[in-house]
Amino acid sequence: MSIEDTRLTGEVGSVRELNAYLLAGWTLILTYAETSNGSQHPHYVISWQKEEEPVMPEMLDAWELGEMNRMRNR
User: Fold this and answer.
1) What is the full per-residue pLDDT of the chain (74 aa) written as tens digits?
2) Rounded to 5 degrees, what angle do the CA atoms 24, 27, 10 make?
3) Which residues pair with 44 in a beta bridge?
């Protein structure tokens, strides 16, 4: 698909989120890293290029992920 077919764009900051969006049908169009205090933070720009309504994957927030890890390590 061409960039001109983009209907909606978004940005995610982790590979976990990126993979969820790619599995839902989104397209990766740009990656870059933001440098802060000597470390780099990845950013991924994604686009929805299909005719149908965009599919938003359900994502767990940081607290929910922490709780799952805490329960797993009991």
Assistant:
1) 688 889 999 999 989 899 999 999 999 999 999 998 989 999 999 999 999 999 998 877 778 777 878 888 87
2) 85
3) 12, 31
